[in-house]
Each structure stands twice: as C-alpha cells, then as structure tokens.
Amino acid sequence: MLKPVHSGRTLREAKSLALATAMGLDAEYASKADVDDLADLEGGIHRLGRVRKDAAKIARVKFAPRKQFTQTREEHLARWATNYGGEGRLN
Known about the structure:
By secondary structure, this protein is an all-alpha fold. The chain has five helices and no strands. Helix content is 63%, strand content 0%.
C-alpha cells in the first residue's frame, strides 16, 4: 500500500487499484490456473524469508480453529499484488 502512495498516488487511487485487481482476479476475467499461479508465487515468497520461529508461529495459526474469513481469495491476492494494507473488505 505504501508503494502507490509514495509514488504520488492518493489513498483513494491506491484503494481503487486494489479493488480493480481483485475484480480482475475474479473467475469471469482470470483463469483458475492464473489465480493459482499467483497464489503459489505469494506462498513461495513467504516461504523463502521464513525462519524457524516464523514457521512455528505459522503452524500455530494453521492448526488453530478456523475463523470467519474477512475477505475473498481474490481480494487477498489483490491486496498482496498492490501492497494494500487496509482493513475490511474492498467493496
């Protein structure tokens, strides 16, 4: 989220960019293979920078009881792709 704002975009423009990316990752516009590839890429980047302490923390979260999801898979990938760090749903 900071990259678009520091490059001269307003907060409104950065949020619109994240929302447009989320819509672009919808099943109507992107193939399932493309969305899966982007998700794998995000997961791979997280795995590369992880240390043992982080892995233990992730394991605790992974095996904890599930909570209600606050965003869709497309919104999560759009936030990651655009570096948008806001809370709540995009739409």
